[in-house]
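Students often ask what a holo structure prediction actually looks like on paper. The answer is less mysterious than it sounds. You provide the chain, you provide the ligand, and the output is a string of C-alpha coordinates encoding the 3D arrangement of the protein together with guanosine-5'-diphosphate-alpha-D-mannose.
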Amino acid sequence: MDKTALITGITGQDGYYLSKFLLNKGYTVYGMYRRTSQDPLLNINNFNGNLKLTEGDVTDMGSLLNIIKEIQPDEIYNLAAQSFVPSSWTQPISTAKITGLGTLNMLEVIRHVNPKIRFYQASTSELYGKIQETPQTEKTPFYPRSPYGVAKIFAYWTTVNYRESYGIHASNGILFNHESPKRGKQFVTRKITHSVAKIKLGLQDFFEIGNLNAKRDWGYAGDYVESMWMMLQQDQPGDYVIATGDTHSVREFIEESFRVVGMDIEWEGNGLDEVGKVDGKIVVKVNAKFYRPAEVDILIGSPKKAIDNLGWDPTKTKFKELVRMMVESDVKELSEKGLGDIDRGHLDANDSDSIYKCS
Ligand code: GDD
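The corresponding C-alpha coordinates follow.
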Protein backbone atom coordinates (compact mmCIF):
# COMPACT_ATOMS: atom_id res chain seq x y z
CA MET A 1 0.00 0.00 0.00
CA ASP A 2 1.29 3.40 -0.91
CA LYS A 3 -0.99 5.78 0.90
CA THR A 4 -0.42 8.96 2.86
CA ALA A 5 -2.49 9.92 5.89
CA LEU A 6 -2.58 13.10 7.91
CA ILE A 7 -3.60 12.76 11.56
CA THR A 8 -4.43 15.87 13.56
CA GLY A 9 -4.18 15.51 17.32
CA ILE A 10 -1.28 13.07 16.97
CA THR A 11 -0.15 13.59 20.57
CA GLY A 12 -3.35 12.24 22.12
CA GLN A 13 -4.29 8.67 22.99
CA ASP A 14 -6.04 8.00 19.67
CA GLY A 15 -3.22 9.62 17.69
CA TYR A 16 -0.88 7.12 19.30
CA TYR A 17 -2.94 4.04 18.44
CA LEU A 18 -4.05 5.21 15.00
CA SER A 19 -0.57 6.17 13.82
CA LYS A 20 0.76 2.81 15.02
CA PHE A 21 -2.06 1.03 13.17
CA LEU A 22 -1.55 2.94 9.89
CA LEU A 23 2.26 2.59 10.00
CA ASN A 24 1.77 -1.18 10.32
CA LYS A 25 -0.35 -1.05 7.18
CA GLY A 26 2.52 0.64 5.33
CA TYR A 27 1.10 4.16 5.29
CA THR A 28 3.22 7.25 5.31
CA VAL A 29 1.80 9.09 8.31
CA TYR A 30 2.04 12.81 8.94
CA GLY A 31 1.17 13.72 12.49
CA MET A 32 0.12 17.30 13.09
CA TYR A 33 0.77 18.84 16.47
CA ARG A 34 0.49 22.25 18.05
CA ARG A 35 3.65 23.93 19.24
CA THR A 36 4.04 24.03 23.02
CA SER A 37 6.97 24.97 25.20
CA GLN A 38 7.44 21.34 26.24
CA ASP A 39 8.14 18.30 24.11
CA PRO A 40 4.63 16.96 23.48
CA LEU A 41 5.63 13.94 21.43
CA LEU A 42 6.88 11.48 24.02
CA ASN A 43 4.27 8.84 23.14
CA ILE A 44 5.22 8.47 19.51
CA ASN A 45 8.86 9.46 19.30
CA ASN A 46 10.13 5.92 18.96
CA PHE A 47 7.70 4.48 16.42
CA ASN A 48 9.11 2.55 13.48
CA GLY A 49 7.95 3.30 9.96
CA ASN A 50 7.34 6.34 7.90
CA LEU A 51 6.09 8.79 10.51
CA LYS A 52 6.65 12.51 10.00
CA LEU A 53 5.65 15.24 12.36
CA THR A 54 4.41 18.58 11.23
CA GLU A 55 3.51 21.67 13.23
CA GLY A 56 0.07 23.10 12.61
CA ASP A 57 -3.15 24.20 14.25
CA VAL A 58 -6.74 23.43 13.23
CA THR A 59 -7.77 26.96 14.22
CA ASP A 60 -5.30 28.39 11.70
CA MET A 61 -6.60 27.65 8.22
CA GLY A 62 -3.37 28.93 6.63
CA SER A 63 -1.36 26.26 8.42
CA LEU A 64 -3.78 23.57 7.22
CA LEU A 65 -3.60 24.89 3.68
CA ASN A 66 0.20 24.73 3.66
CA ILE A 67 0.34 21.25 5.11
CA ILE A 68 -2.33 19.70 2.90
CA LYS A 69 -0.96 21.28 -0.29
CA GLU A 70 2.51 20.09 0.61
CA ILE A 71 1.82 16.50 1.63
CA GLN A 72 -1.24 15.74 -0.58
CA PRO A 73 -2.71 13.14 1.78
CA ASP A 74 -5.13 10.45 0.62
CA GLU A 75 -6.83 10.39 4.00
CA ILE A 76 -7.22 12.86 6.87
CA TYR A 77 -8.15 11.78 10.38
CA ASN A 78 -9.31 14.79 12.38
CA LEU A 79 -8.64 13.86 16.00
CA ALA A 80 -7.63 17.35 17.16
CA ALA A 81 -9.95 18.77 19.81
CA GLN A 82 -10.19 20.33 23.23
CA SER A 83 -11.44 16.95 24.44
CA PHE A 84 -11.75 17.28 28.22
CA VAL A 85 -15.43 17.91 28.91
CA PRO A 86 -15.00 19.92 32.18
CA SER A 87 -12.59 22.37 30.50
CA SER A 88 -15.30 23.20 28.00
CA TRP A 89 -17.19 25.04 30.74
CA THR A 90 -14.15 27.12 31.70
CA GLN A 91 -13.00 27.64 28.10
CA PRO A 92 -16.18 27.44 26.02
CA ILE A 93 -15.05 29.73 23.24
CA SER A 94 -11.67 28.16 22.60
CA THR A 95 -13.40 24.77 22.76
CA ALA A 96 -15.84 25.93 20.06
CA LYS A 97 -12.98 27.27 17.94
CA ILE A 98 -10.83 24.15 18.17
CA THR A 99 -13.43 21.42 18.38
CA GLY A 100 -16.11 23.00 16.18
CA LEU A 101 -14.59 25.53 13.80
CA GLY A 102 -11.37 23.50 13.48
CA THR A 103 -13.37 20.86 11.62
CA LEU A 104 -14.88 23.45 9.29
CA ASN A 105 -11.41 24.85 8.56
CA MET A 106 -10.21 21.40 7.62
CA LEU A 107 -13.17 20.65 5.35
CA GLU A 108 -12.88 24.04 3.63
CA VAL A 109 -9.23 23.32 2.84
CA ILE A 110 -10.11 19.85 1.53
CA ARG A 111 -12.85 21.34 -0.65
CA HIS A 112 -10.50 23.88 -2.20
CA VAL A 113 -7.28 21.87 -2.42
CA ASN A 114 -8.48 18.36 -3.25
CA PRO A 115 -12.07 17.19 -2.63
CA LYS A 116 -11.00 13.60 -3.28
CA ILE A 117 -9.21 13.42 0.07
CA ARG A 118 -11.12 11.09 2.40
CA PHE A 119 -12.00 12.62 5.76
CA TYR A 120 -12.64 11.08 9.18
CA GLN A 121 -14.23 13.21 11.89
CA ALA A 122 -13.85 12.19 15.53
CA SER A 123 -17.44 12.51 16.64
CA THR A 124 -18.55 11.35 20.04
CA SER A 125 -21.21 9.83 22.26
CA GLU A 126 -21.29 13.21 24.03
CA LEU A 127 -23.63 14.22 21.17
CA TYR A 128 -26.34 12.12 22.86
CA GLY A 129 -25.84 13.75 26.27
CA LYS A 130 -29.25 13.62 27.88
CA ILE A 131 -30.16 10.44 26.09
CA GLN A 132 -33.36 10.26 24.07
CA GLU A 133 -33.39 6.46 23.62
CA THR A 134 -31.47 3.32 24.65
CA PRO A 135 -29.29 2.02 23.18
CA GLN A 136 -28.05 4.99 21.16
CA THR A 137 -27.82 4.40 17.41
CA GLU A 138 -26.97 6.54 14.38
CA LYS A 139 -30.65 7.59 14.34
CA THR A 140 -30.97 8.65 17.99
CA PRO A 141 -31.62 12.42 18.34
CA PHE A 142 -28.78 14.44 19.86
CA TYR A 143 -29.03 16.41 23.13
CA PRO A 144 -25.57 17.64 24.17
CA ARG A 145 -24.94 18.58 27.80
CA SER A 146 -21.69 20.58 27.63
CA PRO A 147 -20.06 23.28 25.50
CA TYR A 148 -17.84 20.43 24.27
CA GLY A 149 -20.87 18.44 23.11
CA VAL A 150 -22.32 21.52 21.42
CA ALA A 151 -19.05 22.16 19.55
CA LYS A 152 -18.92 18.51 18.48
CA ILE A 153 -22.48 18.76 17.09
CA PHE A 154 -21.36 21.62 14.87
CA ALA A 155 -18.45 19.49 13.65
CA TYR A 156 -20.72 16.49 13.12
CA TRP A 157 -23.21 18.35 10.95
CA THR A 158 -20.47 20.21 9.08
CA THR A 159 -19.04 16.84 8.12
CA VAL A 160 -22.46 15.60 6.94
CA ASN A 161 -23.08 18.84 5.10
CA TYR A 162 -19.76 18.84 3.22
CA ARG A 163 -20.47 15.26 2.19
CA GLU A 164 -23.91 16.21 0.88
CA SER A 165 -22.96 19.60 -0.59
CA TYR A 166 -19.64 18.76 -2.23
CA GLY A 167 -19.57 14.97 -2.48
CA ILE A 168 -16.57 14.72 -0.15
CA HIS A 169 -15.93 11.23 1.28
CA ALA A 170 -16.43 12.46 4.85
CA SER A 171 -17.47 10.18 7.71
CA ASN A 172 -18.31 10.61 11.38
CA GLY A 173 -17.16 8.00 13.85
CA ILE A 174 -19.49 8.40 16.83
CA LEU A 175 -17.08 6.85 19.30
CA PHE A 176 -18.24 6.05 22.79
CA ASN A 177 -15.65 6.36 25.59
CA HIS A 178 -12.48 4.50 24.72
CA GLU A 179 -9.63 4.08 27.14
CA SER A 180 -6.14 2.61 27.42
CA PRO A 181 -2.89 2.96 29.33
CA LYS A 182 -2.24 6.01 27.12
CA ARG A 183 -5.37 7.81 28.32
CA GLY A 184 -4.74 11.21 29.90
CA LYS A 185 -4.83 11.16 33.71
CA GLN A 186 -7.63 13.71 33.88
CA PHE A 187 -10.16 11.29 32.39
CA VAL A 188 -11.91 9.21 34.97
CA THR A 189 -10.66 5.74 34.01
CA ARG A 190 -6.96 6.60 34.02
CA LYS A 191 -7.38 8.79 37.07
CA ILE A 192 -8.76 5.73 38.86
CA THR A 193 -6.21 3.19 37.62
CA HIS A 194 -3.27 5.49 38.29
CA SER A 195 -4.53 6.31 41.79
CA VAL A 196 -5.25 2.67 42.60
CA ALA A 197 -1.72 1.74 41.49
CA LYS A 198 -0.28 4.44 43.74
CA ILE A 199 -2.38 3.29 46.68
CA LYS A 200 -1.29 -0.31 46.11
CA LEU A 201 2.37 0.78 46.07
CA GLY A 202 1.95 2.87 49.22
CA LEU A 203 2.52 6.16 47.39
CA GLN A 204 -0.90 7.64 48.07
CA ASP A 205 -3.56 7.15 50.74
CA PHE A 206 -6.74 8.00 48.88
CA PHE A 207 -8.12 9.79 45.85
CA GLU A 208 -11.09 12.05 45.28
CA ILE A 209 -13.80 11.48 42.74
CA GLY A 210 -17.00 13.08 41.42
CA ASN A 211 -20.19 11.34 40.33
CA LEU A 212 -19.81 7.66 41.20
CA ASN A 213 -23.05 6.71 39.50
CA ALA A 214 -22.34 8.03 36.00
CA LYS A 215 -22.39 5.13 33.53
CA ARG A 216 -20.35 4.79 30.37
CA ASP A 217 -19.94 2.34 27.51
CA TRP A 218 -16.16 1.88 27.83
CA GLY A 219 -14.07 0.18 25.15
CA TYR A 220 -10.38 -0.15 24.31
CA ALA A 221 -8.88 2.65 22.18
CA GLY A 222 -6.62 0.19 20.35
CA ASP A 223 -9.73 -1.57 18.96
CA TYR A 224 -11.59 1.65 18.19
CA VAL A 225 -8.98 3.26 15.91
CA GLU A 226 -9.38 0.32 13.53
CA SER A 227 -12.96 1.43 12.86
CA MET A 228 -11.70 4.88 11.81
CA TRP A 229 -9.63 3.34 9.06
CA MET A 230 -12.44 0.97 8.06
CA MET A 231 -14.81 3.91 7.52
CA LEU A 232 -12.44 5.50 5.03
CA GLN A 233 -12.03 2.25 3.06
CA GLN A 234 -15.77 2.03 2.26
CA ASP A 235 -17.04 2.94 -1.22
CA GLN A 236 -19.53 5.28 0.43
CA PRO A 237 -18.92 7.56 3.40
CA GLY A 238 -21.25 7.36 6.41
CA ASP A 239 -21.74 7.85 10.13
CA TYR A 240 -21.13 5.01 12.56
CA VAL A 241 -21.62 4.34 16.26
CA ILE A 242 -18.55 2.63 17.71
CA ALA A 243 -19.34 1.13 21.12
CA THR A 244 -19.34 -2.17 23.00
CA GLY A 245 -23.07 -2.26 23.82
CA ASP A 246 -22.24 -2.69 27.51
CA THR A 247 -22.36 -0.05 30.24
CA HIS A 248 -20.72 0.27 33.69
CA SER A 249 -20.67 2.90 36.42
CA VAL A 250 -17.67 4.85 37.68
CA ARG A 251 -18.25 2.97 40.96
CA GLU A 252 -17.91 -0.38 39.18
CA PHE A 253 -14.74 0.82 37.45
CA ILE A 254 -13.26 1.65 40.87
CA GLU A 255 -14.31 -1.67 42.37
CA GLU A 256 -12.83 -3.63 39.48
CA SER A 257 -9.57 -1.64 39.61
CA PHE A 258 -9.06 -2.43 43.29
CA ARG A 259 -9.93 -6.06 42.59
CA VAL A 260 -7.07 -6.26 40.06
CA VAL A 261 -4.56 -5.39 42.82
CA GLY A 262 -6.19 -7.75 45.31
CA MET A 263 -8.01 -5.12 47.38
CA ASP A 264 -11.75 -5.24 48.15
CA ILE A 265 -13.46 -1.91 48.48
CA GLU A 266 -16.56 -1.29 50.58
CA TRP A 267 -18.75 1.80 50.36
CA GLU A 268 -20.12 3.77 53.29
CA GLY A 269 -22.37 6.83 53.48
CA ASN A 270 -24.32 8.64 50.78
CA GLY A 271 -23.91 11.42 48.24
CA LEU A 272 -21.08 13.81 49.04
CA ASP A 273 -20.39 11.95 52.28
CA GLU A 274 -19.80 8.62 50.61
CA VAL A 275 -16.39 7.03 51.03
CA GLY A 276 -14.75 3.83 49.85
CA LYS A 277 -12.76 1.80 52.38
CA VAL A 278 -10.29 -1.06 52.20
CA ASP A 279 -9.65 -2.84 55.52
CA GLY A 280 -11.27 0.09 57.33
CA LYS A 281 -8.99 2.72 55.71
CA ILE A 282 -10.47 5.39 53.44
CA VAL A 283 -9.18 5.06 49.87
CA VAL A 284 -11.84 7.02 47.95
CA LYS A 285 -13.65 10.24 48.88
CA VAL A 286 -16.33 12.07 46.95
CA ASN A 287 -15.59 15.71 46.21
CA ALA A 288 -18.17 18.07 44.72
CA LYS A 289 -15.53 19.86 42.69
CA PHE A 290 -15.50 16.92 40.28
CA TYR A 291 -19.22 17.19 39.61
CA ARG A 292 -20.26 18.83 36.34
CA PRO A 293 -22.75 21.65 35.84
CA ALA A 294 -24.75 19.29 33.60
CA GLU A 295 -24.06 15.57 33.63
CA VAL A 296 -24.37 12.83 31.04
CA ASP A 297 -25.81 10.15 33.32
CA ILE A 298 -25.65 7.06 31.17
CA LEU A 299 -24.45 6.05 27.71
CA ILE A 300 -24.80 2.76 25.93
CA GLY A 301 -24.29 2.43 22.20
CA SER A 302 -25.38 -0.04 19.56
CA PRO A 303 -22.48 -0.94 17.24
CA LYS A 304 -24.78 -2.93 14.91
CA LYS A 305 -24.23 -0.78 11.82
CA ALA A 306 -20.45 -0.90 12.28
CA ILE A 307 -20.56 -4.69 12.66
CA ASP A 308 -22.81 -5.15 9.61
CA ASN A 309 -21.26 -2.60 7.23
CA LEU A 310 -17.62 -2.34 8.33
CA GLY A 311 -17.06 -5.79 9.78
CA TRP A 312 -15.81 -4.09 12.96
CA ASP A 313 -15.63 -6.34 16.06
CA PRO A 314 -16.77 -4.78 19.37
CA THR A 315 -16.01 -7.89 21.42
CA LYS A 316 -12.21 -7.95 21.26
CA THR A 317 -11.53 -6.32 24.63
CA LYS A 318 -14.10 -6.69 27.40
CA PHE A 319 -14.57 -4.34 30.36
CA LYS A 320 -12.63 -6.44 32.89
CA GLU A 321 -9.72 -6.93 30.49
CA LEU A 322 -9.58 -3.21 29.84
CA VAL A 323 -9.48 -2.38 33.55
CA ARG A 324 -6.81 -5.00 34.15
CA MET A 325 -4.66 -3.75 31.27
CA MET A 326 -4.78 -0.19 32.59
CA VAL A 327 -4.16 -0.98 36.27
CA GLU A 328 -1.30 -3.38 35.51
CA SER A 329 0.31 -0.86 33.19
CA ASP A 330 0.15 1.86 35.87
CA VAL A 331 1.53 -0.45 38.57
CA LYS A 332 4.40 -1.42 36.25
CA GLU A 333 5.15 2.14 35.20
CA LEU A 334 5.15 3.44 38.77
CA SER A 335 7.22 0.51 40.05
CA GLU A 336 9.82 1.04 37.31
CA LYS A 337 10.11 4.74 38.09
CA GLY A 338 11.50 3.76 41.47
CA LEU A 339 10.20 5.19 44.69
CA GLY A 340 13.05 7.67 44.87
CA ASP A 341 11.66 9.63 41.93
CA ILE A 342 8.27 10.08 43.46
CA ASP A 343 7.31 12.76 45.91
CA ARG A 344 6.18 10.62 48.83
CA GLY A 345 5.11 13.64 50.83
CA HIS A 346 2.24 14.34 48.47
CA LEU A 347 0.04 11.54 49.67
CA ASP A 348 -3.35 12.86 48.69
CA ALA A 349 -2.18 13.81 45.22
CA ASN A 350 -4.89 14.34 42.65
CA ASP A 351 -3.10 14.30 39.33
CA SER A 352 -6.33 14.94 37.69
CA ASP A 353 -7.99 17.98 39.16
CA SER A 354 -10.74 19.42 37.07
CA ILE A 355 -10.85 23.02 38.09
CA TYR A 356 -14.05 24.52 36.81
CA LYS A 357 -16.32 26.10 39.33
CA CYS A 358 -20.04 26.46 38.94
CA SER A 359 -21.60 29.08 41.09
N1 GDD B 1 -12.82 13.23 34.57
C1 GDD B 1 -13.49 12.84 35.67
N2 GDD B 1 -12.89 13.01 36.90
N3 GDD B 1 -14.72 12.32 35.53
C2 GDD B 1 -15.37 11.91 36.65
C3 GDD B 1 -14.81 12.03 37.93
C4 GDD B 1 -13.52 12.62 38.06
O1 GDD B 1 -12.98 12.77 39.15
N4 GDD B 1 -15.69 11.52 38.82
C5 GDD B 1 -16.75 11.09 38.13
N5 GDD B 1 -16.57 11.32 36.82
C6 GDD B 1 -17.54 11.02 35.75
C7 GDD B 1 -17.88 12.23 34.89
O2 GDD B 1 -18.79 13.09 35.55
C8 GDD B 1 -18.45 11.52 33.67
O3 GDD B 1 -19.80 11.23 33.86
C9 GDD B 1 -17.66 10.20 33.60
O4 GDD B 1 -16.99 10.07 34.85
C10 GDD B 1 -16.63 10.11 32.48
O5 GDD B 1 -15.82 11.26 32.50
P1 GDD B 1 -14.49 11.38 31.59
O6 GDD B 1 -13.63 10.19 31.76
O7 GDD B 1 -13.91 12.72 31.85
O8 GDD B 1 -15.04 11.25 30.09
P2 GDD B 1 -16.31 11.91 29.34
O9 GDD B 1 -17.36 10.84 29.23
O10 GDD B 1 -16.70 13.19 29.94
O11 GDD B 1 -15.74 12.24 27.90
C11 GDD B 1 -14.78 11.40 27.25
O12 GDD B 1 -15.40 10.51 26.35
C12 GDD B 1 -16.11 11.13 25.27
C13 GDD B 1 -16.74 10.03 24.41
O13 GDD B 1 -15.78 9.29 23.73
C14 GDD B 1 -13.81 12.33 26.53
O14 GDD B 1 -12.75 11.58 25.99
C15 GDD B 1 -14.51 13.06 25.39
O15 GDD B 1 -13.56 13.84 24.67
C16 GDD B 1 -15.15 12.02 24.47
O16 GDD B 1 -15.86 12.68 23.44
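The longest strand covers residues 118-124.
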